[in-house]
Amino acid sequence: MIDLHSHILHDFDDGARTLEAAIAMAREAAAMGVTVMAATPHGRNSTNADHSRYTVALLAERLAELRAALAEEDINLELVPGTEIYGEPGVVERLKAGELLPYGESRTVLVEFPLTSPADVVEQIVFGLQVAGYRVVYAHPERMRYVQHDPNSLVPLIERGALMQLTGDALLGAQGPVMRHLAETLVTHRLVQIIASDAHGPHFGRLPNLGAARARAAELVGDAEADAMTRAVPTLILNDGPITPPPPIPIRQRFSFF
Length: 258
Ligand SMILES: [Fe+2]
Description:
With 258 residues, this protein is of the alpha/beta class. Helix content is 41%, strand content 12%. The chain has helices at 19-31, 56-73, 91-96, 119-131, 145-149, 155-159, 168-172, 177-188, 210-221, 223-238; strands at residues 2-3, 36-39, 78-81, 84-86, 108-112, 135-139, 163-167, 194-196.
């Protein structure tokens, strides 16, 4: 499996606090069958500029430290650099300037949005990135208020090639039964294309859990689609390959989430 969203880099953001904690997360992920993990610390943005430590140089330094430690510990987990980019005006310019990073050598970016952003604001940022030549992975759309109100609102983005990343915890019930119901609905209606852990570490209560999330997804939509969301699509993302996800099935029944 490939986990495209994690805060495994130590002493960086709100993720792993120490190198030892990062090693423990890596060991746990590798034990459940994760072979590649993207290290995606929160990028510097207008809301965290005063306290964020994010720089591309620090990211490279932490990555090198952790890779060396994993080699020493014999933990077979490949790390790919990335950034959890805060979706706001100016991100294209900052990506072009090299202040924020796509995944590895790819043209795909991981983007999160303020939870109360409306659909049109999100779409404007996503389309701006796409016009600039980036493929967009939308981090945990299940947390967005407008998506909770109407999950079908993701359809236009999916039809334009954006990829939705569900967080494993949501599917596993760690964020409560209502969120689990929403997550299951998103999976069964093909409204998400990727599952990732967004692991932060034990202090945060969010651990690498992609194996369990994949198993739950397989119960819902079968093994082939569970594999697509946790291995095949992430592989194509890292290689800039073409992705043709199954078409979304709009939700007809009126759901009331949250
Ligand atoms: Fe994250």
